[in-house]
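Reopening closed ticket. The problem is back. First fold of the pair:
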Amino acid sequence: MSGSWVLAKTVSSEQEIKRSRFICTLWPIQSLAEGQQIIRQQKQQHPQAAHVCSAMLLPAGPTGQPQAFSDDGEPSGTAGKPMLAVLQGSGMVGLCAAVVRYYGGIQLGTGGLVRAYSDAVRQTLTLAQREFIPVRHQASLLMPYAVFEAMQRLWQNRWLIDQQEFGQQVHLTVRIAQSDQQEFEQQFMQTIVRLKEPQATLVWHQPPEQDT
């Protein structure tokens, strides 16, 4: 089944390295703007922190995979980029990581910083709950009430309804898991034939993608 693994809910962990506190939190996000807002809030919540370093990773799109990272004053390449590398190896997308550092007075050196920030994210990922989100495609259906009632019985726990209008006929906009598209089409056609309602229509908003 095509889809993505995502973070089910926010999770945090803390560790101390040479008297510096590293507090890592992971959030599920749907855009870089959402992640940037989270980082701003973290800085407001931790005004005494020396650094609030971050990394974000979104699902791949037509122009690549959106991502961002920040060292927030740490030496270049010692925080945000190593954090992003850990996210990229997690198998998940759509997540934001922030590591708040309270400086303990002992310098860690370049290698020590890379390990500290990487380990902070890695440790938090071990506590994370994952959720699989299947690829879904949107479709519009225009159908008599009898067809709607029959399809509702079959698909009420499997389709996601984006819009619904009830007039002389029922107009639905739904999202169907990519792996269920063929079954959905077959059951829709079988239903309109069985109920003798040939005027019912089903239109996909985008063509199915091929599994890889």
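Second fold of the pair, where the issue appears:
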Amino acid sequence: MKKVFIISLSILFVSCGTSPQKPLVTQPIKASSGEMILLGKINMANLQSSDVSSWFKEEYNKVSVDPQWGKDLQPYLKDLKIKVFMGTWCEDSQREIPHFFKLLDALDFDQRHLEMYAMSEEKTTPQNFEKGLEVFNVPTLIFFRNGNEINRFVELPVNSLESDIAKIIKGESYTHSYE
């Protein structure tokens, strides 16, 4: 009986483990410029696997993050949720989003608390995910705690992406590039 219990418990732990993220269902579309882009709700797996975001892996692999950076911010992650608005066509998104995901990895951030939306060149999504959020530039990373926006990163770092994100997560004074 004890063996059956241990085996059952082991199966339970293995089945509750996190499995690799799967891409959300989305098809590349032709943008108004003629370029093929992703549009709508996506995740990191979409960026890693889509032909229109071949830049992601290369840029992601170029970035290194001091592990202490993530450890120092761990106490500030409680109740943190993030919405990311980006464009696969946008050079700023191509530069910042892989770096941002490397930072999330250093934080061991639970990506179930992250929503990401690929926008058109006109900065819209077919489902209007951006409605009421005043997204005018991409990438825009909006940070929420307890359902309230605490701050946002817009397009370019003020100091560095690590420094800007750390200030936002800690609740320190931070003004993004367009304020």
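Update: turned out to be a display glitch only; the data is intact. The radius of gyration is 18 Å. The helical segments are 2-16, 44-49, 55-62, 67-73, 91-107, 161-170. Please close again.
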